[in-house]
Amino acid sequence: MNIAIIGIGLIGGSLALSLRGFETHIIGVDINKKNSEEALKLNLVDEILPLEQAVKKANLVILAIPVDSARKLLPIVLDNINENTVVADMGSTKDGICSAVSNHPSRKNYVATHPIAGTENSGPSAAFSGLFKNKTTIICEKEKSADFAINLVEKMFNLLEMNIIYMQANEHDRHIAYVSHISHITSFVLGITVLGIEKDEKKIFNMAGSGFASTVRLAKSSPDMWAPIFEQNAENISVALDAYINNLQSFKNIINKQDTKQARKLMKQANDIRRILSGIE
Amino acid sequence: MNIAIIGIGLIGGSLALSLRGFETHIIGVDINKKNSEEALKLNLVDEILPLEQAVKKANLVILAIPVDSARKLLPIVLDNINENTVVADMGSTKDGICSAVSNHPSRKNYVATHPIAGTENSGPSAAFSGLFKNKTTIICEKEKSADFAINLVEKMFNLLEMNIIYMQANEHDRHIAYVSHISHITSFVLGITVLGIEKDEKKIFNMAGSGFASTVRLAKSSPDMWAPIFEQNAENISVALDAYINNLQSFKNIINKQDTKQARKLMKQANDIRRILSGIE
C-alpha cells in the first residue's frame, strides 16, 4: 500500500515511523525543502514527491499540516484522488475542515480524525514511533465517510494501538477547547507573564522548579501549528477562556480576602483531577 | 548528630532519607499519628518523639510543615532549644515566618530556607531520596543567622547536592509568587474549570491528552500545604495574578479578533521559555 503523508513534522513523521509495520511504501510531501531532506535522511519516508504525484500514487493520503493549510489543501487533494483512495486529516479542529468539503463529490473518501497525541516539539527530528500508542483518537462525522474509508482508517489506528472514539465535528471542537486548547493558552500566557518579569528581575528563573516547568511546558509549542487552531476554534475557545478567567478571578478574590477555608474547599474540588489523570499520565 | 524533623511528609520524609549518609540519628515529629507510624514503618526515621523532647535532644531541627503551622511553631521551638542548636524551616513563604521571630532572643540560631523541590504528592509514602538533588535552594536573611547556623545548613544542602542562592525574605516572596505560586493557581483553576464542564459532558476527559495532564498536574497538590501559602503571600500573588489575567485577557481579545499575526508573535515570545526550561527539566 502506498501512503502519502503531507507534512513530515512531529505528527506526520511519527505516523510514518509507526506505519512501517503496515507493509507500506511511504511517500512524503512537504513544502519545506529542509524538512523533506531531513525526513529522507532520518529514514522517515521512502521517497519525497510533489503533492499531485504523491496523491495520484497513493491509496491513503494523510494530511498532517497546520489546520489552515489542511482546510485549503483538502479540497485540492480530493479533486486529484482515484476512486478508491482514502484521505484523512489529523488536525486539532474539525468543524472548519469538514465544512470546507461537505459538498465535495469525493466527501465519502475523506475521514476527519484527530489523534490526541503530540509533544511541545516540532519538525521531522521530533518524530518518534511510540507517539500514538495507547492514546485516544477521534473520528468525526463517521456517517459521511464511505465504509471502505472508515475501515482503512480504523485499521490504521488499531495498528497504532489507539483507542477510537466517535463524535460530531462541532462537539469535538467545543470539548477540545477545554481539554487542549485552553491549556496551551494558559501555558503560553504563563510563559509570557514570567518572561515579562524577567526583564527587570534577571535571576527570577533561578527560582523556578519542576512544578513551573510542567505548567509552562506547552509554551514551547509551535506558533505555526497553534495560531490557525486558535483562529478556527475562536468561538469555542473564547467561551472556555471566559469560564477559566471567571474561575481565576474568583480564586484571586478568595486569596485577596485571605479566605483560607474557601481556598481549601476549591483546591479539594480540584484534587478530583487525580481520578482523571490516572488514566492519561 | 541528632536531627529532629518536624513533619514527616513529602519534604520531611525525603530529607530524612537523604540525610541518612550524614551520620545522623533522625527523630521524627508529627501531630498525625498515622504519618508517624508510617514514617517508622517506611524506615524514614529512627524514632518518633513528642515535639519538646525531640527539640531538646536535637542538634538540628527542621520544620517541614505547612507555613501557617511553621509560623506558629517556630517561636516555640526557639524557646526550647539549646544554645548551639540550629533550626531551619523549608516553607514556600519566608517573610511571615522571618517576621514572627525577628526579635526572638534565639533568632541567630534560625536559618530561613526554601528548597525548590517537591511533587504534587504528599505524605510519608511520597518521600524519596533523590528529591533535592541538583535543585535550587534559597537561604533568606543570611545576615540574621549566626555563622555556625549558616555553616551547618549549607553543609546539609551541599550534601543534598543543591545549588544555594541567597536573598531577602520579601524579595523571595515577590519572585516565588511568579515562578511557583501562580503556576499552582493556574493549574488548580484549570482543573476546577474542566471538572465543572464534566458535570454536563461526562466523556470530556476521554479527549484529554498528555498536554492537558502536564498543565493540570499541580491541581493534585495538597490543599493543606497550599492554602496557608496563598494566605501568607496574598499580596504578591495578587499582583502576579493581575499580570497573568491581563495577559490572558489580551490573548483572548486577539483570538476573538482572529488576529493570527499577533497571536503568532506572542507565542514566539513565549517560546523563549525553552531557554529557561532547558536548565530545570
Structural class per helix/strand content of chain A?
A: alpha/beta
Mean pLDDT of chain A: 95
Number of domains of chain A: 2
The end-to-end span of chain A amounts to: 34 Å
Percentage of helical residues of chain A? 40-55%
Approximate shape of chain A: globular
Rg of chain A, nearest Å: 21 Å
Oligomer: homodimer
Report the top-level CATH class of the largest domain in chain A: Alpha Beta
Looking across the biggest beta sheet of chain A, what order are the strands in?
3-2-1-4-5-6-7-8
Largest inter-chain contact set: A-B, 92 and 92 residues
CATH superfamily of the largest domain in chain A, by name, is NAD(P)-binding Rossmann-like Domain
Compute the number of helices of chain A: 12
What fold name goes in the CATH topology slot of the largest domain in chain A?
Answer: Rossmann fold
The biggest sheet of chain A, with number of strands, parallel, antiparallel or mixed sense and barrel status, is: 8 strands, mixed
Instruction: Flag low-confidence runs of chain A.
Output: none
Order of H and E elements of chain A:
EHEHEHEHEHEEHEHHHHHH
Q: Would you mind describing this structure in some detail?
A:
The structure is a homodimer of 281-residue chains. With 281 residues, chain A is α/β, with parallel strands linked by helices. Chain A folds into 2 domains: 2-168, Rossmann fold (3-Layer(aba) Sandwich), CATH 3.40.50.720; 172-277, 6-phosphogluconate dehydrogenase C-terminal fold, CATH 1.10.3660. Helix content of chain A is 51%, strand content 13%. The first copy, chain A, has helices spanning 10-18, 33-41, 51-57, 67-80, 95-100, 147-159, 169-198, 210-216, 223-232, 234-256, 260-270, 273-277; strands at residues 2-6, 25-29, 47-48, 60-63, 86-89, 110-115, 136-140, 163-167. In chain A, β1 (2-6), α1 and β2 (25-29) form a beta-alpha-beta unit. In chain A, α7 (169-198) packs across α10 (234-256). Chain A is globular and about 65 Å long. Chains A and B meet through α7, α8, α9, α10 and α11 of A and α7, α8, α9, α10 and α11 of B.
